[in-house]
Amino acid sequence: MTRLIPFLFFLALPFGLSAQVLNMEQDNRETDTIGQIEPEAIPLSRIVQELETTREEIKSNRNRVERNITEADSLFPIYEEFLNEQKQEVAAFLTANPNKEKIDNIIIKWEGFNNYLKSWQSEINESERKNSLLLETIEPKEDIWVLSYESALEEDIPEKVLLSIEETIFDIRALKDTIFMNNYDLLSLESQVNQEINETNSVIDELRALKRSEVYRIFHQRHPALWNTSFRNIWAEAKSEDGKPLEITRFGVRKFIDNTKATLPLFLFLMGLITFLILYSKRTLRKYPFERRNLDLQRAKNVFSGHYISAICFLSLLLARYYFVPLPKLFLDISILLLLVFAVPLVLNFMHKRYRRLILFAILFYVINSVKTHVWFNSEQYRIYLLIEAILLIAVLIFFINPHYKKTKGRLGDFGTFLLKLVPILFVLGLIAIVSNILGYTNLTDLSLKIATRSGVFVILFYVLLVIINAVFLSIIHRHYVVKNEYDVDKKIQTEKKALRIIRVLIIIFWLLAFLNMIDQFQPLVTILSDFLSEPYKIGDITFTLQDIFSFLLVLFIAFALTRIVSFLLNDEDGMLRIFHLPKGYPAAISLIIRYLIIGFGVILALSSLGIDLSKFNLMAGALGLGIGFGLQTVISNFVSGMILVFERPIIQGDTVEVDNLLGIVNRIGVRSSSITTFDGAEVIVPNNNLISNDLINWTLSNNTKRVEIFVGTTYSSDPNEVLKILFTVAEGYKHTLKNPPPQALFVEFGDSSLNFTLRFWVHYENWLQARSDISIEIYNQFKKANIQIPFPQRDIYIKSMPGSSQDPEPKDKPDDTSRKMEDTDIPEVITPIEHREPDPDVKIDEKKLTDDEDQEKDPEKDD
């Protein structure tokens, strides 16, 4: 419950902030509508200067307005004509019986046309918005110059100035008319662009409907059986689309340049970040040693030792592939080939020598399978091409795998073993492709060969991506721990395994999505899930969808995951902020602030994903704030105290503190309380308010040194000078003793039975207890060598009689004139007095007589 209260406070904090922001916006709107400043005439002393300034502004604005419409008017008719030609080609394309890959190619091309038109639409809307803002600034100037003209008529000013004012007013009104006409032309152009967008959408929908038609289903017999085919037209020219690639390239390149003007800096920044991470990981794995038995770190080091350039190029090209979209299918296939080129050096280390050439054959089969996407065949040529591709696939698998399968099975490594497990599946797919092609089910043949030839390529690419990401994260985790003086090796290994497990799951998910997209099942699956998740449900007056709930939970999960990552990377002086050489405690404060901001914005975004209007929570936020003020005073006090601890830094994580008779190490400074681990192993939760309001001793705030003091006494027969010399030498020669301040040996006093000395020396706090023990033992050893004795107290014991002894013939009631004096030389100072010991069963003491003798000693005149 105590952990839930701070969370509820943070959950309520965004409501209060949003309510305050909404109130401020409402106040600003009221101020803008009520407190508008009335236009005033320009003073005559400044009227000439303002005339020149206004003319320059009118000229600049007119050129800007005319340029907005001119560029769009000049390009759109050409592009509209180009789209009409492409529509005719699509009509011819639909009658050419294309395969699904060619349909995908045309869909990607028309999505590019659609995006180009949408970018024009955005530019037109932006021009309209600028014109509206320009009108808002021009209309008050018109009123100002009209008032200035009326004021100038009342004054005696030159006629030329009046004419200039009239011309300025006329120019302002002409500019307003130009803006209105420009907006009219922009609206007309926007309607034409919207019409073209609708037509491109209809073409895309028609192409997608063709893909979903009966003709392209997997078990549809698209061609007759092979024995019913005559092959008379095998050398006939195939139907093809009469496209104009130069026109497409010209507009595509222009659109690419226009888009990259704004997005290229971000792409270059991301490339720089990738380069920094790779080089940082390489330097970390080379600089900081690790256990030889850690195979994961050894593999990461091998990846970056000689192939870091390939890793940088691989990640940069992969980013570009999904950053600049949509791209033509030909460019996408070329990017896959380039990715394979950079992936080959990284994956060869994890394969057996005999099977390394399989990567080259995988690339070859990818090219063979991609050719039919861009080259047109007639029906007979297409089926022969598919049959040859399937036979080559099975032949290569038999040649490389079968002879040495059992011999090399145990020496292939993880990746090689995984590829061998795919071999039976590839054989089955190849056989299915051959049989289905013979029977005329070419759609099934296409799908089988596509999975067999491209799935291996995707496995290689995603495996290389997994290896690179694993290496980066392992280097970060390794550096995070090894820079510390002491760290828990088991905890480090557990963190590495957890990170690798999470990365592996994410890569598998991305590979699964890519595989579904490859077999054209991703979009149908997304549609099914979207329809299911967007189904509305109603409970009482509340209407919600599963998509809203899923988005809410996902945003919160991402926010808390980011806080964990930030805490791991920035929470101590050895984290990522180490390069800035910040004072002690600053990284923890920065980490805490970032985590609070992430949680706050995460809660706001999560609530927004539910479709909740935060303006409706104004009253609830006020009531909740009032309840917090009165009902949760202690919690808020602890929260504020926690913020004081973070920013003022009287204690930080890792300090040794003493508060309320509690001595231990600060383990965590939280929102409501802090955790202190005592030296007995107990973890004590201390409210933050106690750390602020009570007396607090921090042994390691400014430094972690402590003065240790040892008291020792010697007999009066010892030489004080020699004792002081021994004490100083022992402290100075100890390995943990600090040189500054130096040790100090002092003579304290003349005791009752000893000469008393003290030894003072400084050590680091974590070593003081062991240092006091070691130096005390060494003092004892040196005293023993120098024949210096440590005194102990002496006591006299008087025994009146010994029952059963021959020396005691006297009756029990007769006073004993003699006494036996025994010196207790065997009793050290720390032993309890003799009267508190257990009596010897062989010695019987007459307690009554002993008491009488003691009374007689106190009062000798009593017997007289």
From TrEMBL:
Similarity comment: Belongs to the MscS (TC 1.A.23) family.
Keyword hit for Iron: no
Gene Ontology terms, MF aspect: mechanosensitive monoatomic ion channel activity
Signal peptide range: 1-19
Family annotation (Gene3D superfamilies): 1.10.287.1260, 2.30.30.60, 3.30.70.100
Database matches in Pfam families: MS_channel_1st, MS_channel_2nd, MS_channel_3rd
Disordered, as annotated region: 799-864
Residue ranges constituting the Mechanosensitive ion channel transmembrane helices 2/3 domain according to the UniProt record: 593-633
InterPro entries in the record: LSM_dom_sf, MS_channel_1st, MS_channel_C, MscS-like_channel, MscS_beta-dom_sf, MscS_channel_2nd, MscS_channel_C_sf, MscS_channel_CS
Primary location recorded for the protein, binned into one broad class: membrane
Cellular component terms per the entry's GO annotation: plasma membrane
Location in the cell: Cell membrane
Domain Mechanosensitive ion channel MscS C-terminal: 709-790
Record membrane topology: Multi-pass membrane protein
Limits of the Mechanosensitive ion channel MscS domain: 634-700
Protein name from the UniProt record: Mechanosensitive ion channel
Biased composition (Basic and acidic residues): 809-824, 834-851
Keywords: Cell membrane, Coiled coil, Membrane, Signal, Transmembrane, Transmembrane helix
Species of origin: Christiangramia lutea
Transmembrane segments: 262-281, 302-324, 330-351, 358-377, 383-401, 422-444, 456-478, 499-519, 549-571, 592-612, 624-647
